[in-house]
Design goal:
It is a single chain. By secondary structure, the protein is α+β, with helices and mostly antiparallel strands. The protein has 2 domains: 139 residues, no CATH class; 181 residues. It has 13 helices and 15 strands. Strands 7, 10, 11, 12, 13 and 15 form a 6-stranded antiparallel beta sheet that branches. The relative contact order is 0.15.
């Protein structure tokens, strides 16, 4: 059985690529810590509401102290991290708190010394000071402002299609993957490989820094490995991207499903619990097809059974009309060019696909590889056009 690993992903037999649950949990916990650092003013302790003069409790910020070493261990050269995570990596290895790297987790079991509390508070204060100088909040804002261009692209796509077609049939699907549980044999071999694969990333992270003078072998303890605690993983980005590409490439071989497809929007997203998944909107010529629930179900089954070979599953949004109507936002199925309200709902609902909440991206790829809004066929070459005699509602 061949297994190749990185700090965050592993490839098993049959080319099964997984991202470790512990890595996703750590990423979102680190974001929570950085939100406390950037947007709060507290430190390790805070005065309680008790009448006792010296009654203090640990803040939400302070409770992250035992995990700082684990956060630093998530560094990898393979991914591009959001600004607040990258900022943590840069500041942690330069601060004297990194001298305690191998012992930070021990504070989970008991009260840390006054010395380590002072060092922790100084680390937080230093990050807050440096954040102002490097305009970290602006960097975060720029990272999160990617939706603006995406929304413009979605609106442009819809405007062009509605100008060409009398109505669109809108199909919305969410594509997911089943969680993977490793066999005992796989788990043991993965742990063995992970012990070796971490060295390069750690060497790159800790090299040439004043406080990185401890033995790097301490970073490779088995107890700190995700699989030592939970032999479970989720499909990684590379597999999701490949399956997404195969789905859209193969649509030409499924004319009964995709012949009348005129446009589509997709977005790859990562969630703490669900891992990587895909939101997709298919836009069909509504004058030619109208069974939107059926089309959604057939495309979903094609994804689950053929594209992912049973490892994936789907959610058919077109069957949730009651949910959308509850909020007066139903915009799936047939959407007529002249139905102003439903078109407005459609534009609004699809803007959700433009949101940018990714914590990590993939620096080796060029362009926006997480989102697309494209024509399935050139609308200017389609001889059909919408009728223009109807008065708008």
């Amino acid at each position: 059985m061949k297994i190749s690993t990185h700090n965050h992903t592993l490839t098993l037999k049959e080319n099964r690529q997984l991202i470790l649950n512990n890595h996703l949990e750590g990423i979102y916990s680190l974001i929570s810590f950085m939100n406390e650092v950037i947007y709060r003013s507290q430190y390790f302790y805070t005065k309680t509401k008790s009448k006792l003069k010296n009654d203090y409790e640990v803040t939400k910020l302070g409770k992250h102290l035992p995990d700082l070493g684990h956060y630093a261990n998530m560094f990898t050269r393979d991914y591009q991290f959001c600004p607040e995570i990258q900022y943590f990596f840069e500041n942690y290895r330069r601060h004297k708190i990194s001298k305690y790297h191998e012992n930070l987790s021990m504070f989970r079991a008991g009260k840390p010394s006054d010395e380590i509390v002072k060092i922790f508070d100084d680390f937080v204060a230093t990050m807050r000071k440096n954040a102002i100088q490097c305009k970290l909040k602006k960097q975060i804002g720029n990272w999160r402002n990617k939706p603006a261009a995406r929304v413009r692209r979605i609106n442009q796509l819809l405007d062009t299609l509605f100008a060409r077609y009398a109505r669109l049939m809108v199909v919305r699907l969410d594509f997911h993957y089943k969680e993977a549980v490793l066999t005992h044999e796989e788990a043991e071999q993965v742990i063995h490989e992970l012990l070796k694969s971490r060295a390069d990333d750690h060497q790159a992270y800790w090299s040439n820094h004043e406080f990185a003078d401890f033995d790097n072998s301490s970073l490779l303890a088995i107890d700190d490995l995700p699989l030592a605690r939970s032999p479970i993983g989720k499909v990684c980005f590379e597999r999701v991207a490949a399956d997404r590409k195969r789905l859209f490439t193969n649509r030409k071989g499924k004319p009964l499903l995709f012949r009348e497809l005129v446009g589509y929007i997709w977005k790859i997203e990562c969630a703490r619990e669900a891992g990587y998944h895909i939101h997709v909107c298919f836009l069909f010529d509504g004058s030619k097809v109208d069974k939107h629930e059926y089309y959604a179900d057939q495309i979903g089954r094609y994804w689950a059974d053929v594209i992912t070979k049973g490892q994936g599953y789907f959610h058919n949004c077109n069957k949730n009309k009651a949910f959308y109507e509850k909020y007066q936002r139903w915009a799936l199925g047939q959407v007529d060019h002249f139905d102003v309200q439903k078109r407005k709902n459609l534009y609004h609902s699809l803007s959700y696909l433009a949101k940018a909440d990714q914590a990590i991206e993939f620096g080796k790829q060029k362009g926006d590889h997480l989102f697309r809004a494209e024509f399935a066929k050139d609308p200017t070459k389609d001889p059909r056009g919408r009728k223009r005699t109807k008065i708008s509602k």
